[in-house]
Amino acid sequence: MEVMKILNNTADLDNMIYSNNSYRAWIGLYDDHVLGSWWWSLSDPSFYKPGETEFRQWYPGRPIAGYTDNVCAGIQHPYGLWYDRSCDIIHYAVCADVRGSSVTFVIITILMTWPEAQSYCRAHYTDLASVRNMAENQKVQAMLKVGLYWFGLFRDSWKWSDGSTSSFSFWKKGQPDNNNETCVAADFSQSGAWEGWSCDMERAFICYGPVVPVSKKVLKVKFENKKNLDLNDPAVMEAMLKQLKQKLRAQGLDDNIKLSWRKQADGNVFHKEDKKTNKRRRKREEL
């Protein structure tokens, strides 16, 4: 949601007006139609040792092949075997509270859909539980009472173009609608909520790249005021900044450089040089 807030603050709706369905921009999510892709809600790769993301304890005959709905995994009492169910069914849940290398499982006896359980666990703990090995499966199994409990495994054919495995979603209600719309746009007229669209539509789009480090330097400058201008006049200061920026560009500095004046304690930027004080200072330096 922090990224969605950034995108909403960045989006310029005035430049996102089309003949139909304005204010939308492509993001990097797409459907690759691979139904066998199972992911953990807690996607941090450092949380898993080699092979742990692939650990499974399915009930025989599960998962069901060809099941095209949004599918999530639950762990069943009393044997600790896993079932695939529609994510919209309500069940209890198992959350995980991760503190460094220590993991505590927490049973939540509130009936919720899988997305609701995911949001609940992320708000109150770390995430829905990842079951990484047989020891953890047996630990969770011993905590279960009656019925099936959601945990952090889900099947999703939607992928991020950069290969990341984030399980965050921000779909608009009723989306995705499985209507051969395999690319995703954010609707910034509705806080950037996601919609599936045909990939051959033309839209604005959002790129990202590495964060450019920002440095700040404070320089003291001296001007000869031959025309006796009021250098603290905002219009004069603005004109001076423009000239300085032009000179810096001519010397090959980046166009993204930002210049500003720094006010002194009395609220002014510029002060007239005291020549007598400077003469006394120079004499002291010579001595």
TrEMBL record:
One Pfam family in the UniProt entry: Lectin_C
InterPro entries the record matches: C-type_lectin-like (IPR001304), C-type_lectin-like/link_sf (IPR016186), C-type_lectin_CS (IPR018378), CTDL_fold (IPR016187)
Coiled coil (UniProt feature): none
Alphabetized CDD domains for the sequence: CLECT
Domain of life (superkingdom): Eukaryota
Domain C-type lectin, residue spans: 13-96, 112-208
Positions of the UniProt region annotated as Disordered: 268-287
Compositional bias of kind Basic residues: 277-287
Keywords: Disulfide bond
PANTHER family: C-TYPE LECTIN DOMAIN FAMILY 20 MEMBER A-RELATED, C-TYPE LECTIN DOMAIN FAMILY 4 MEMBER K-LIKE-RELATED
Protein name: C-type lectin domain-containing protein
Taxonomy of the source species: Eukaryota, Metazoa, Chordata, Craniata, Vertebrata
